[in-house]
Amino acid sequence: MPARTALSVRPLRLAVASLRLLLALTVLLGVLYPASVLLVGRLVPDRADGSPVRVDGQVVGSALLGQAVPEGPEGDAFLHPRPSAAGDGYDPLASGASNLGPSSPELVALVEERRDVVAEREGVDPALVPADAVTASGSGLDPHVSPAYAELQVPRLARERGLTEDEVRAVVADATTGAWLGVVGEPAVSVLAVNLALEERAPVR
């Protein structure tokens, strides 16, 4: 009889142990872990909130997301970003590439059209237009351009802003980051940082 009692108690003990384990994991993974992630996110707000860039307390863009420049003649006073295939242009809800292969006639025609537009805008030979000036990034949201594409735009920016080319190059240099740890990636120029610095030095009137 005592043996039967022990056997009947064992499932109850297992049930209680399982319930305790469930409660412990619920507290650990459902409360403590999310709370710690939220705390870390709040301690590094730029990363947690999308790295917003503020001017006079107002959000003017994100350090992680590209954005289009004004259309028309006014846009000539701004550093132009890479083309975007994300929705209607730099739409974070439609991030992605065009999915057109390098041998696609449609992509080849689009690249040639973009090259002609950039060459005409910058007053250079089409052969001098860098690749990132005519191709979108994989996400379509790249906030950077290559130093070569930024340099191509220096004369136009200097002319439109009433600055010297050396002054514009200094702005570009300040907004240029090198390869991570010196070996990963390529140098890149933050389009938003350049445009904000140009607006501070010589606002568009």
From TrEMBL:
In its UniProt record, a GO molecular function of this protein is:
P-type potassium transmembrane transporter activity
Where, by residue number, does the polypeptide cross the bilayer? Answer: none
Task: Specify the protein's topology with respect to the membrane.
Answer: Single-pass membrane protein
Principal localization reads membrane
The protein's matches in Pfam families, at most eight in alphabetical order, are given as:
KdpC
- Give the UniProt entry's GO cellular component terms: plasma membrane
InterPro entries in the record: KdpC (IPR003820)
What are the start and end residues of every segment in region (Disordered)? 71-99
Q: Where in the cell is it found?
A: Cell membrane
List UniProt keywords, sorted A-Z: ATP-binding, Cell membrane, Ion transport, Membrane, Nucleotide-binding, Potassium, Potassium transport, Transmembrane, Transmembrane helix, Transport
NCBIfam families attached to this UniProt entry: kdpC
Similarity comment text for this entry: Belongs to the KdpC family.
Its subunit composition reads:
The system is composed of three essential subunits: KdpA, KdpB and KdpC.
Function, as annotated: Part of the high-affinity ATP-driven potassium transport (or Kdp) system, which catalyzes the hydrolysis of ATP coupled with the electrogenic transport of potassium into the cytoplasm. This subunit acts as a catalytic chaperone that increases the ATP-binding affinity of the ATP-hydrolyzing subunit KdpB by the formation of a transient KdpB/KdpC/ATP ternary complex.
What is the protein's given name?
Answer: Potassium-transporting ATPase KdpC subunit
Taxonomic placement = Bacteria, Bacillati, Actinomycetota, Actinomycetes, Kineosporiales
